[in-house]
Amino acid sequence: MARFIERRLEPADSPLAIIASTAAAFLAAMLITAFLFRSYGASPLQAYFALFHEPFATLRGFGYALVRASPLGLIALGTIVSWRSGFSYLGFEGCFVIGATATAWLALLTAPGGRIGSRIGPLPFVLFLALAILLGFAAGGAWAGWVALVRARFGGNEVLISLMSNYVAIFFLQYLVSGPLRAPGSLPETPLLPRATWLPFILRGTRAHAGILIAIAAAGLVWMLLQKMPLGYELIVTGFNPSAARYAGIDVGRRLAIAAFFAGGLGALAGLVEVLGSQHRLMDGISGGVGFAGIIVALLARLNPLAVIPTALLYGGMSVGADAMQRRVSIPSSITFILQSLAVLFVLAFDALRYYKITPSVFWRRAPEVAAEQVSK
Amino acid sequence: MKATSFLASAFVVTWLSASLRLAGPVLLAALGETFAERSGVLNVGIEGTMLLGALASFLAAAYTGMIWIGVLAAVLVGIAANLFLAWMYVSVRASQVVAGLVFNVLAIGVASTVYRRAIGNSAVPESVAMFPPVHIPFLSSLPLLGPVLFGQTFLFYLTLLLAFVAHFVLFRTNFGLALRASGENPAAADSAGVSVYRMRYAGTLISGAAAGMAGGYLVLAQVGFFRENIVSGQGFIALGIVIFGRWNPLKAAVAAMVFGACDALQLSLQILGTGVPPQLLLALPYIVTILAISGVFGGKAIQPAALMTPYVKD
Q1: What are the tens digits of pLDDT across the range A309-334?
Q2: Residue A195 lies in a domain
Q3: Closest residue, chain B, to A293 (C-alpha)
Q4: Complex ipTM
Q5: Residue A340 lies in a domain
Q6: Min CA distance, B116 vs chain A (Å)?
Q7: Containing H/E element for A118?
Q8: Of A155, A299, A341, the CB nearest to B300
């Protein structure tokens, strides 16, 4: 007898099933948030309009959405490289700080009054940017890479070590901006970086800068690495089944270190983009949770590098819209944290629904038909 | 007594008593987490649970004016939040690291939304009454040891007692045996008649109750108010202490004291006015925890064999 709900042995994995469960998860998260909006006496439709109108229907707001999307996208790409290689790295807050610090340090060093800049004169922007990217990537890569070495060599748990290392990087930054790199003044921050080191603005009348182009290029490169290159294949095999990888002659420890290096480098580029594109100086609290938000973006993009940029734009846009919502409808912007994290949790939970098969026709097909079907089986 | 030796003994007394004071909440959270991990669940969500517990205890104590209602509210909120987490970890079989991590972001959203709403209400005070230090007659007037060991708050002694209770339950009861079996070899535990799902729910809920109460500890015995950054990684430190303590409640107590000593050292060194930048000292407890759990010293930490592995009953 066919039943209305049956459990499958394997989850349904057709694109339709995946899209349906993802959409249902987003709808459920939006529904719960709508009730929260109501509790503030606001109409949910108005609140959602405020949330999406500013970032996606005004040029200025879209510019800000691009500004927020660039570091988020880069961190999400770092997450994808490390997680798909089986390295559960969570230290992107630290990588971001390390990248931002290395970039600001280089910019101040080569500034007209800096120790190197005063001798050889200002560097051409392209040369400076190339140097900054190399330095930042290497610094972030080293910052994440040693965690992989510790895991491969001593069996330390990378989840917790990387979580702790975030705090070490943040305190290091606090020390630098309140001591050696501090600008004269009351705030713990460096002097403004020379204008010649800023990333160019790309949309007239907005704050959007070339960082989004760096993020898009990185997304393409990560996709190439994972889908088209032998190294990427080895990384994914390592992540999928480390003992099989080892059996096939892949040096798992070394692949983990490579994955961590790339991940840390990408996380550091997020810091570079934020410093050169948006803040134009280094200050305490510059990371502000973007290292974790980037992980959420990667999860919402289902660890697919090509889906990262649109997802980061959506996520960054929502945080721009949240500020507008707070101003206009006076709903606290922290509600968007609830909306975004519920969406991820429901995506995870609703994946379990793909184990169930629904046969609604049992209600309108007549019993003899069903019985005949059973007999023919 | 010479001035320098007086200063030195004042330094040691402040340092050691601050060590124990700071060790309390992380130890409490670590004791609960030991149960979750022994059952096979890595509950990263205790960071967010501590935040929710802190908020619940602050609001409950502020509205009722009763400090114990604050503790109770923190425990209940911790259990409720971890019922959801346990469902994600055990029933949905989501990745434990991902679910816990995202739950922490959810907790920040919920806590800051609720707190902003509450402080808009004029009936909520800025701070609440805290547990006073318990002065045990005779003992607390002992030189050196007295103020260090016997001048702590009631919650500290309760936490210490719970460490022994946890050790007994984990290693001397049938429940503890079944819980540990679920984390070491769930299939074998299942065939011996243990409900692995129930044990893992139990482990996660115990860690939720402890983490919620640890958040209440922060508010009701350390600071007396709520801030969105009140927890700032102490839940993660508790995770480190569980490893550092080799999944053993009594060793975790020692590990928590070591952490507290590092944390308190920067307070004391700042008072002494050494030239060391305070930010580098603040990083010290995190660096010590990293070194302790890295396995560089003392060989590999042997974790429960089925940790982070969801169990599927055939």
Answers
A1: 999 999 999 989 988 888 888 888 88
A2: yes
A3: B105
A4: 0.86
A5: no
A6: 8
A7: helix A117-120
A8: A155
User: Where residue B182 sits, what CATH number does that domain have?
Assistant: 1.10.3470.10
What are the structure tokens assigned to B23, written together? 């060790």
Q: Which residues of B touch A165 (CB under 8 A)?
A: 286, 290
Is residue B249 included in any domain, yes or no? yes
Give the model's pLDDT for residue A377: 55
Q: Is the pLDDT of residue A270 over 90?
A: yes
- For residue A213, the one-letter residue type is L
What's the confidence (pLDDT) of residue B263? 82
Least Cα distance to A258 among A240, A232, A223, A228 occurs for A232
Of B88, B108, B112, the CB nearest to A345: B88
Separation CA B27–CA B255 (nearest Å): 8
> What's the pLDDT tens digit per position in B186-229?
999 999 999 999 999 999 999 999 999 999 999 999 899 999 88
Best of A72, A164, A300, A355 to mutate (most B CBs within 10 Å, chain B) = A164
Q: How close A17 comes to chain B (CA, Å)?
A: 17
pLDDT above 50 (res B1):
no
CATH code, A231 = 1.10.3470
Domain range for A292: 64-321
Tally of domains within chain A: 1
Q: How far apart are CA B31 and CA B167, in angstroms?
A: 9
Q: Is residue A4 part of a domain?
A: no
Please list every residue in chain B whose beta carbon sits closer than 8 Å to the beta carbon of residue A21.
Answer: none
Q: For chain B, how many residues are written?
A: 314
Residues of the domain holding B93: 15-130+150-294
Per-residue confidence band for A70, with pLDDT thresholds at 50, 70 and 90: very high
> Is the four-CA dihedral A342, A344, A348, A353 of positive or negative sign?
positive
Name the DSSP class of A181: T
In a domain, A333, yes or no: no
pLDDT tens digits along A214-244:
999 999 999 999 999 999 998 998 888 888 8
